[in-house]
Design goal:
The complex is a heterodimer of chains A (115) and B (286).
Chain A lengths: L3 H19 L5 E9 L6 H12 L8 E7 L1 E5 L5 E4 L14 E5 L3 E8 L1
Parallel strand pairs in A: 1-2
Antiparallel strand pairs in A: 1-6, 3-4, 3-5
Chain B lengths: L10 E3 L16 E3 L6 E3 L22 E8 L2 H16 L2 E8 L5 H12 L5 E7 L4 H7 L4 E6 L8 H9 L6 E6 L16 E7 L6 H4 L1 H6 L2 E5 L11 H11 L4 E4 L8 H14 L9
Parallel strand pairs in B: 5-8, 5-9, 6-7, 6-8, 9-10, 10-11
Antiparallel strand pairs in B: 1-7, 2-3
Helix pairs in contact in B: 1-4
The chains are: A alpha+beta (115), B alpha/beta (286).
């Protein structure tokens, strides 16, 4: 399986464990991630491997919630901030090719619900 | 499997010096030294004994939300920075070679190592899912190589590189890291290298930079390999260069043939120029 999403979920579990060292909890109910549409992670692949990777960890049985952040860029041709559907797309306003990605590549763990 | 750092899934095989790494458990908070860059595993054990198995803690049963707000790859970034610091302090200029399988990364490395070893101390880290074949090809040139087998892993990460660096005599010069052949996953993992070099061979499609933009966007240099085959193919070089520059206007592009050596001089000049500019000391003493 060539999916770096497995590694990403392992990294999420490591962050959960780091937090557990600071404040004790016995169970994780939900984990919320913020994933950029132009980033390196495929949300479906994250969901696909989540149960398998969390099995046997403190996060076993928890719910994965993914908040998607749309891609955003700044067009040097028309000077507008625009939504980007893909990383190197042309400007949807003026058709210019000089759009610099300014957002939408995040890979963040936002919060979790615990008990 | 160690979910903190992946130690259990990757192993450093056939180390030229020192003991072979064994997977180690992270049983408790501890710092373990990686040669001269001690890094701290601040993460506690993943305790398989607790969790869902009927544990209840009186007074702590109230469900609550904990804000984390951290980059998922924060820990890889910490390992990468430790590697980068260690490489800088030892005067080593490191390149991370990425490509799809079969583009000729190892053949290129054999050429580069052979051409550069008289002038620079050189070491190579080879990443593959299985086998030490590539490290053996490098060692046949007389250059030190460490093989990392990632098992099921589809990329090298910074922690694996930290372990591999322990096995190398780091005293200036050049370090080539050959990543697992994969144009997707390695783009996300900083290893602590100075530059990524993406290799694309002319037997692949010229639109590959558009299909796998993350990798080409992250690279400083693209090597168009197997250029000796161009007369026999319909490969459109101009379209390929345009595709690469569309995803990365700053990318530098050199055509090369690892088989014939055509274009090699420009690649050597690029590497040595960058290494010297980076303060990469240490042209090998005669």
């Amino acid at each position: 399986m060539a999916m770096h999403e497995v590694s990403l979920i392992e990294s999420v579990i490591a962050l959960v464990e780091q937090e557990r060292a600071k404040q004790d909890f016995a169970r994780v109910f939900a984990i919320r991630l913020r994933i950029g549409a132009l980033g390196h992670a495929e949300p479906d692949a994250l969901r696909f491997c989540f149960d398998a990777v969390t099995h046997g960890t403190v996060a076993e049985g928890s719910r994965l919630e993914i908040e998607m952040v749309p891609g955003e860029g700044w067009c040097a041709d028309c000077g507008k901030t625009v939504l980007l559907a893909e990383r190197f797309a042309a400007c949807p306003v003026c058709g210019g090719r000089h759009v610099r990605m300014t957002g939408g590549d995040s890979l963040r763990m936002v919060e979790m619900e615990v008990e | 499997m160690c979910t903190v750092c992946g130690c259990g899934t990757a192993r450093v095989a056939d180390a030229p010096v020192g003991p072979t790494m064994r997977a180690h458990t992270h049983g408790q908070d501890h710092a373990h030294p990686h040669g001269d860059h001690a890094h701290v595993h601040a993460t506690p054990a993943i305790d398989f004994g607790t969790g869902l198995a009927g544990v209840s803690i009186p007074g702590l049963s109230q469900q609550r939300t904990i804000a984390i707000e951290r980059d998922i790859l924060a820990m890889n970034a910490e390992y990468a920075e430790a590697n980068r610091t260690r490489l800088r302090e030892t005067g080593v200029f490191a390149l991370n070679l990425v490509s799809s399988p079969g583009s000729g990364k190892t053949a290129l490395l054999v050429r580069l190592a052979t051409a550069l070893k008289a002038r620079w101390p050189i070491a190579v880290i080879e990443g593959d899912q299985q086998t030490s074949n590539d490290a053996e090809r490098i060692r046949a040139t007389g250059v030190t190589a460490v093989q990392i087998n990632t098992g099921k892993g589809c990329h090298l990460d910074a922690h694996m590189i930290g372990h591999a660096l322990e096995q190398l005599p780091l005293a200036g010069g050049l370090l080539f890291i050959e990543n697992v052949g994969n144009l997707v996953c390695p783009a996300a993992f900083d290893l602590g290298e100075a530059c990524k070099v993406v290799v694309l061979s002319v037997t692949e499609g010229e639109d590959k930079p558009l299909k796998y933009p993350d990798m080409f966007a992250a690279a400083d240099l693209m090597l168009l390999n197997k250029s000796d085959l161009l007369p026999h193919l319909d490969f459109d070089v101009a379209a390929c260069l345009a595709a690469a520059r569309r995803v990365n206007p700053q990318i530098e592009i050199l055509a090369v043939s690892a088989r014939t050596g055509e274009g090699l001089a420009s690649v050597l000049a690029w590497i040595e120029g960058r290494a010297i500019a980076a303060g990469g000391s240490t042209v090998k003493a005669e």
